[in-house]
Every structure is written in structure tokens, then in C-alpha cells.
Specification:
The complex is a heterodimer of chains A (about 190) and B (about 160). Chain A is an all-alpha fold. Chain A is built from nine helices and no strands. In chain A, helix 2 packs across helix 4 and helix 7 crosses helix 9. Chain B is mostly helical. Chain B is built from nine helices and no strands. In chain B, helix 2 crosses helix 3. The longest helix of chain B is centred in the middle third of the chain and has 26 residues. The chains are: A mainly alpha (about 190), B mainly alpha (about 160). Chains A and B meet through helix 2, helix 3, helix 6, helix 7 and helix 9 of A and helix 1, helix 3 and helix 4 of B.
Chain lengths: ~190, ~160
């Protein structure tokens, strides 16, 4: 989502205590935050819980938002911090690790049985998601921000508080590790 | 960065985040190095697959649930700011009610008809020397009964 003037006005109104503006901001960003978290944690229930928590942290603190980064990047930063906190808990570590069940990837499956080519595509996506979940959280975050959320290097740098050089090098490492994890699958296909 | 194999530049190259000079260098190298060309192809494929990942559906009513939770949190924090209020509100209300009732009773007691009569007679007879010589309210009341105040008409006639 582009950082537009409409949002600027909305944020200013929300900071002045306009609850309708807050509700509009939630409407505009709830899906982005949910999808972002889902790509990071791979679990729908957890992504929904953390999305709610992200807004419950962000809304009362909206006066602290200083327009230094896009609002979405600010929300993503809160979301990543919450996910990091959550990961520290033993129960959640189970969900984020190798014990993730296939049910967690239902969002990738179609309602009807797909034709062969689509089935292969689905299978690859499942592989890709599993590979993503094997990456350390920092690498997973940067690659999701860049390749799925299409954020610029500068936006990622602002969202995560990393230097630009760090963003570039971690993105390179993330892609390299993902490609290494997927290479056996690609070779099997060829 | 390895000068012979510009591997770290490959990721930036795919994002078109390299300078023209770097771009030229990478492209020239990829033509000559099968290993780097393979790696670039892998990264390109990965990038492509990532961008084609379907956008997962969002649970219906997510934004509404978030706002409902936010409002409920705000209400809770409002009462939280008066931390003792929920616990003490009911006893405080009862106490306030009792005090109000007591105040009414006290005020009624202070202004009964007996006191009002004494007050009225004092206003009428305050200039009389007999009145000022009386010792208590009972004597004052007896005096007042034996000396009914003159009406305005009688006073005018006397004059």
C-alpha cells in the first residue's frame, strides 16, 4: 500500500482522538498486517492473534508515530517485535518450528482439486513456505518484506531499524539460503 | 565482496539496485561464469516464485474485531485509571446516600415549628424590654401567647 496524503490526514485525525479515523486506519492496514504475519509465522490463528495485538499496541500509541517511516512500516515493526516475543514462548516455538502441521498452510490450497500443473505449483508453494519457516526470523522478515510486500530497501531499513547495508546483506543471505533449501526440489523437477 | 565472483551483487542486481558500472560488471561476469549464472538464475526464479505466492484470504471481520477489542481495552483502561473506583464505588454511594439523609433530618430538626415561632416572636418583640428580660424559650413562648402581636391596622390606629 502506498503512503498517501489521505493516510497522512487520517493519522493526524487519529492522533487528535478521532475514533473514526482510527477505525479507517485499521480497515486500511489490517489485511496487510495479517498477511505479513501469516507469511512470517505460517499459522493462521497466530497471525490473527498477533494482528489484533499489533493494533492494540499501535492504536493507543499512535501519538508516538512521527511520520519518519510509512505507517505500514511502523505497524510491521510492531508486528515483528510481537512475533519475536511470541517465539520465545515454548508453546509458540512448537508452531514456528518443524512441528508445523500441513493444516497451517490451508490458505495456500484451493477448494477444488487442481489439475496436475496447478498441483505442482501448490506443492512448490508448500515447499517454499516450509523453506521460509526454516530461515531465522530476521532473514525471513527481510525477504518477506522485500519479495512479498514489495517494500523498498529504505522502507525495510526504517521498519526494522537496520542500516541500509545490513538490509542488503541480510536480504542476500536470506535469498541465498532459500535458494539452497529449494535447489533439491528444483533439481527433482528437472 | 569477492572481486572475481560478484555474488553479493547478484541480489542487488536482480532488484535493479546496482549502479550502471556494477550492472555492466555483473552482466559481463554472468556471461563468463557458469556458476554465478546458475546462482543468478536460482535467485531470479526464487524471486519470481515469491512474487507469485497467492495473497492469502484475510479472516472476515478482522478489522471490526480489532476495533471492538480496542474499544473494550479503552473502557477497561478508563476504569483502571480510577483503580479503587470499581471496588469502592458501591459502598461510597451508600455512604453518600446516608449522609444526605442525615443532613435532611438534621436540617429539619433545626427548623421545627417551635424554633420558627421563637424566631418570629423575637423579630416582633426584640425592642421590648420585657422580652429581653425573659430567661428561656418557654418564658418567651408564654409571653408571646399573652401578648399577641398587633396587626398593621391596630398599629396604624394607635399612631
Amino acid at each position: 500500500m502506498v503512503y498517501t496524503d489521505e493516510q497522512h490526514e487520517l493519522i493526524v485525525a487519529a492522533q487528535a482522538g478521532d475514533e473514526n479515523a482510527l477505525a479507517r486506519l485499521v480497515q486500511l492496514h489490517a489485511s496487510d498486517v495479517y498477511r505479513f504475519l501469516l507469511h512470517l509465522c505460517g499459522n493462521q490463528a497466530l497471525a490473527e492473534d498477533l494482528s489484533q495485538e499489533t493494533f492494540l499496541r499501535a492504536l493507543p500509541a499512535i501519538q508516538k508515530y512521527e511520520f519518519r517511516a510509512p505507517f505500514r512500516a511502523w505497524l510491521f515493526r510492531i508486528a515483528v517485535n510481537l512475533l519475536r516475543d511470541d517465539r520465545r514462548r515454548v508453546a509458540v516455538r512448537k508452531l514456528l518450528g518443524s512441528d508445523i502441521s500441513d493444516d497451517d498452510y490451508l490458505h495456500l490450497a484451493s477448494a477444488d482439486p487442481p489439475p496436475d500443473t496447478l498441483a505442482e505449483k501448490e506443492e512448490f508453494r508448500r515447499e517454499l513456505n516450509q523453506a521460509l519457516n526454516k530461515l531465522p526470523l530476521a532473514l525471513r522478515t527481510v525477504v518477506v518484506m522485500r519479495d512479498l510486500e514489495e517494500m523498498s530497501y529504505v522502507e525495510i531499513s526504517q521498519a526494522l531499524g537496520w542500516r541500509l547495508g545490513t538490509v542488503k546483506s541480510r536480504l542476500f543471505r536470506a535469498r541465498q539460503e532459500l535458494a539452497a533449501l529449494l535447489r533439491p526440489y528444483w533439481e527433482d523437477q528437472e | 565482496m569477492n572481486r572475481r565472483h560478484p555474488r553479493k551483487l547478484l541480489s542487488l542486481y536482480l532488484d535493479q539496485a546496482v549502479s550502471p558500472a556494477q550492472k555492466q560488471r555483473v552482466e559481463k561476469h554472468l556471461q563468463q561464469c557458469a556458476g554465478c549464472a546458475r546462482e543468478a538464475a536460482s535467485l531470479q526464479r526464487l524471486r519470481q516464485e515469491m512474487s507469485e505466492l497467492p495473497r492469502p484470504p484475510v479472516p472476515p471481520g478482522l478489522a471490526a474485531r480489532i476495533m471492538a477489542q480496542y474499544r473494550s481495552q479503552q473502557r477497561a483502561s478508563f476504569w483502571g485509571s480510577f483503580d479503587i473506583a470499581p471496588r469502592l464505588l458501591q459502598p461510597a454511594m451508600v455512604l453518600l446516600l446516608l449522609l444526605t439523609m442525615l443532613a435532611f433530618v438534621w436540617k429539619g430538626r433545626g427548623e421545627n415549628i417551635y424554633d420558627q415561632a421563637i424566631k418570629s416572636y423575637t423579630a416582633v418583640y426584640e425592642n421590648s424590654s420585657s422580652w429581653s428580660s425573659l430567661n428561656n424559650d418557654e418564658e418567651a413562648l408564654r409571653f408571646a401567647l399573652n401578648h399577641p402581636p398587633q396587626s398593621h391596622q391596630e398599629r396604624d390606629n394607635d399612631q
